[in-house]
Amino acid sequence: MTKQLNILALTVAAAAMVSLLPATGAQAATASTSILVTAAVAQACIVVATPLAFGVYDPTSASPTDGTATVAVTCTTGTAYTVGLSAGGGTGATTTVRKMTFGANTLNYALYQNAGRTTNWGNAVGTDTVAGTATGLLINHTVYGRITAGQTVPMGAYADTVAVTVTY
């Protein structure tokens, strides 16, 4: 029995000594990398236009009939653009003399870039279009319209459609 006690005492002593030794277990390891994140921002524009409603034209009046419309442009920030207006759909129309129609009848009108109605608005980029640089926000461009006075035309509902083109 003494032998057994000695063996037990030695076992307890050995266990105590092992517990005093520093732990040599597995240590945590790491590995790392990175993710490259990219995006390309598109150059894009959106354009919306309000109608230009002249109202009632009086062919006996000595004064022209004026009206306005708005062309709203939103493009990617920093995008240079131009806004052009077509001649419209009236037979024989040009960008300087547009023609609203009612059956076979035409009523001449013009579209301008400025309130004084002195700068024609056409569709030749660099010549008679309106230029802008986008801010990323909506930019309004006013279209100034005029029906010249003294046109001898029959009464009726005249209309035309002008295409708006944003070049960027």
TrEMBL record:
Residues 33-165 form the Spore coat protein U/FanG domain. The keyword Lipoprotein does not apply. Keywords: Signal. Residues 1-28 form the signal peptide. This is Spore coat U domain-containing protein. It comes from Lacibacterium aquatile.
